[in-house]
């Protein structure tokens, strides 16, 4: 007997009665979406900035290697995208476009179709996500409703910079992925 | 080693044991605070529990639906009835790729299957990439907690370890400095690995996708740079619909660490062009647990660790005292199902206070199942039961008389003794605990007096 047949017949052999699958209510939040979203991102150790603040930060840092995959704001890349993501190892900044944001927890949905490389949001030193204010939703329930069952090979909710507290529960930003996250709300 | 013996070991370093206790309580407290900001929290727990109930009641149907959809997406699905078969499947994929070094992100299942030693025996270098897991791997230890793998270590110990392994400055104990040293070290491993292994938090039947949650981003760093992704999951990780993720992702991180969501929640549906995703569905005792009606719903567990953080025994005896891959209250009801003899003392490592059941996001009746296991163990294994009382609690529960006397002594002692003396051993796990308010008389004394 194959292991698949073994496992399935073991389950069927128990002879359980089917239990109902509950319908899900769509819980919301009371707070206004933009301010709730902002607070969530800050609690996750990210920042919400406007375009001017962002431009200033960009000028001050003068990053050599920048990749841009967003059409909503006028910033340009300084390098062309390599075919092999391993070459992104010394990338300073990736500017990406988020498809929607969740106010209750700051999670931002990015899907494959907007990611030239799946590794981009992780391998970059700093991450900037551009998000339309009109694309904010109260909770994960509305976010999944909006995403629906659309097919993207890879999709990601990202809510802050890479972090860990594995040494004595002290929070450290920049474990393996991006050392900072900035969200530009437009 | 029985649980009480191992707990005694842990409690030898009293300062550390106290720190462990307080730190986990702090995490538990964060969970409490954030859960109270969600008015529908209890409703979410009910929903999560009902969804899992539905899944377990027709797991065969969902598994087949999941397999079909995953295959349509280009994922290669494998089935393993036990740990051995799981390990063989992983090895065969690696051999086909001619791969001799892999990176792995946190996966309790691969710990359960003892994958690392198996691969190493076969000449493959395994690098655990979660910071906490890398730390314990350097020490040749298993994780002591399913969410906080290195919670039993102090930064001084980690500093020394990193000095030896990663050549960090001697005596530099700054967590940021140490973390960034590990970042550099692991970056190199990520860039070289051709195959990456991850666990699975949820697998969605209707879409054939699976979800992996981390805060560090290590799962994604490994997977997106490698050519082949191997994902290992227990068969109970299935959920029916994509929208069910809304319920579970709202509960998971809040219950685990008191944060609103994990920073990276990756949904894998198809491999990138030219790459491969393999998914291994593992039984390894799960169908047997499913068949045990009383213990069935232990399979609802989403591995958040909340029951460990809240457990007065876990906090005061440490993860290793359980001697099982999953420690703590949930481990104590899962492990006897795998090996009742080896884990016979675990269901007794509990005060049955019920705090675990109160925090569990999928509403598993953990403390009731602990009680059920006690019945099973003492009833069906007479032989085992005899040896058991010897093993338990240094004999304090052995006879009703001893129990009564020690209770009376305790009540007298707690009132008059200074704190330093109370931190003295009464029983092994009780050693480090804070004092309860002592009643003037026990229930038994009260009952005797009032009955007359
Ligand atoms: S039993 Fe419940 S509380 Fe414990 S780890 Fe599992 S889901 Fe979390």
Automatic annotation (TrEMBL), chain A:
Residue span(s) of domain LUD: 90-186
SUPFAM superfamilies hit by this protein: NagB/RpiA/CoA transferase-like
Listed name of the protein: L-lactate dehydrogenase complex protein LldG
Organism of provenance: Algoriphagus aquaeductus
Upper classification of the organism: Bacteria, Pseudomonadati, Bacteroidota, Cytophagia, Cytophagales
TrEMBL record, chain B:
GO molecular function term, any single one: 4 iron, 4 sulfur cluster binding
Residue intervals of the 4Fe-4S ferredoxin-type domain: 292-312
GO biological process, one term: lactate metabolic process
Superkingdom of origin organism: Bacteria
Record-linked InterPro entries: 4Fe4S_Fe-S-bd, 4Fe4S_Fe_S_CS, FTHF_cligase-like_sf, Helical_ferredxn, LUD_dom, LutB/LldF, LutB_C, NagB/RpiA_transferase-like
Key words of the record: 4Fe-4S, Electron transport, Iron, Iron-sulfur, Metal-binding, Repeat, Transport
Name by which UniProt lists this protein: L-lactate dehydrogenase complex protein LldF
Organism whose genome encodes this protein: Algoriphagus aquaeductus
